[in-house]
Amino acid sequence: MSSTLGNFRVSHDCYDLTKVEMLAVSEKTPVFVHTHYADESGG
Questions:
Q1: pLDDT digits over 22-39, tens only?
Q2: Domain range for residue 32?
């Protein structure tokens, strides 16, 4: 029983984390891309 409950909880946590990570990535993506481009342009 413990195994089943643990698995279920992990699944729920994973879903929540995915949503939060997606938001973080979306906001960080432009910054990362901009930095990469600037680094390549500046050398």
A1: 666 656 555 555 555 555
A2: 1-43
In one-letter notation, the amino acid at residue 24 is: A
Residue 20: exposure state from Cβ atoms within 10 A (0-12, 13-18, ≥19): exposed
Nearest in space to 11 (alpha carbons), one of 3, 30, 24: 3
For the chain, the straight-line distance linking the first and the last C-alpha, in angstroms and rounded, comes to 58
How many distinct structural domains can be found in the chain? 1
